[in-house]
């Protein structure tokens, strides 16, 4: 297997929260690529 021949692709959705001027990740959701596209 050569580099770039096979790749794991993910879509990430982040819910952010700003606290005292600093952005924090409140929640993260990862979805694996299904081959035809990401679901909505």
What is the SS-derived class?
mainly beta
Number of domains: 1
Low-pLDDT segments? none
What Rg do the Cα atoms give?
15 Å
Question: How would you characterize this protein structure?
Answer:
By secondary structure, the protein is mainly β. It has one domain (1-40). 0% of the residues lie in helices and 52% in strands. The protein has a two-stranded antiparallel ribbon with strand order 1-2. The termini are far apart. The mean pLDDT is 83.
Provide tags for this entry.
single chain; 40 residues; mainly beta; two-stranded antiparallel sheet
Describe the structure in brief.
This protein is an all-beta fold. The chain is built from no helices and two strands.
Write the layout of secondary structure elements.
Layout: E1 10-19, E2 22-32
Antiparallel strand pairs: 1-2
